[in-house]
Amino acid sequence: MRLLPPNAHMTGGEILLAGEALHRKSERAMREIRGAKIAMIFQDPMTALNPVLSVGEQIAEVLRVHRGYSRSDAWQKAIEALRLVDIPDAAKRAHDYPHHFSGGMRQRVLIAMALACEPDVLIADEPTTALDVTIQAQILALMQEMQARLGMALLIITHDLGVVAQICDEVLVMYGGAIVEYGRAEKIFSQPAMPYTHALLASLPRIDGNVHELLATIDGQPPRLSELPSGCVFAPRCPQRFARCAQRPPLFDVGESHLSRCWLAAASDGQ
């Protein structure tokens, strides 16, 4: 999205959309891509929405900028977008401001705004964090429905493994700013190959668990990104660390397109 603050920058790698490197695009080109080809649902809908503009106007603005609609056509399309995400009485509520909506409804407005131009990629950053379980389930179901209807790619950034299990086909686990495991969701949950992933799953409460048993924890603290260890980034907290962990491991293929950044996986990869 190229929305990093001025004191942040890319140190390596690349991001491609339809084979084109986004980090090499001009700012003008990125303005044409944001909202049109790539859209984002931010974590806090109250701060993501403009408090002094009606929700209808905020959605209509996206359509005027990226699709060239007239003001009247953009307004009608904004109402349709609100109806699409099940906002009751959309024609009336389009005139309301963000503070007139509940948290779940504000999140629906953000989804409507993000989907207005039918993007190729939708990025959702912790889309259900502040919502209760019932509303969370509704929002996830809505996102899945919209993803299927529009045929877009859906990228969810979340720490909620329940959300991951419910909605994701593929999972990419990160620690210390690096990818440490990647694979199909069912493979990650049933056969985690990286100790960090295993520890995350072990920390989840189980419905069939002992109510008197303490949840598993991960000893230590996450590293500062400015002071990462020279070897495996998880090694200082890993109960399975050994001498080779002083070296930075690559991503090993442990089978069925399942990757793990752990020296324990080296045998599976033939190294």
Give a short overview.
The protein has 271 residues and is of the alpha/beta class. A 4-stranded antiparallel sheet has the order 6-7-9-8. It has a 3-stranded parallel sheet with strand order 3-4-5, covered by helices on one side. The protein is 35% helix and 13% strand.
Keywords:
4-stranded antiparallel beta sheet; 271 residues; globular
Structural commentary:
With 271 residues, the chain is α/β, with parallel strands linked by helices. The protein contains ten helices and nine strands. The chain has helices at 27-33, 45-48, 55-67, 71-84, 90-93, 103-115, 133-150, 161-167, 185-190, 195-202, and strands at residues 16-17, 20-21, 38-41, 121-125, 153-157, 170-175, 178-184, 252-253, 259-260. The strands form three sheets. Strands 6-7-9-8 form a four-stranded antiparallel β-sheet. Strand 4, helix 7 (133-150) and strand 5 form a beta-alpha-beta unit. Helix 3 crosses helix 4, helix 3 runs parallel beside helix 6 and helix 6 runs parallel beside helix 7 (133-150). The longest helix is centred in the middle third of the chain and has 18 residues, at 133-150. The chain is globular and about 65 Å long. The chain starts with 15 loop residues before the first strand and ends in an 11-residue tail after the last strand. 27% of the residues are buried.
Ordered list of secondary-structure elements with their pairings:
Elements: E1 16-17, E2 20-21, H1 27-33, E3 38-41, H2 45-48, H3 55-67, H4 71-84, H5 90-93, H6 103-115, E4 121-125, H7 133-150, E5 153-157, H8 161-167, E6 170-175, E7 178-184, H9 185-190, H10 195-202, E8 252-253, E9 259-260
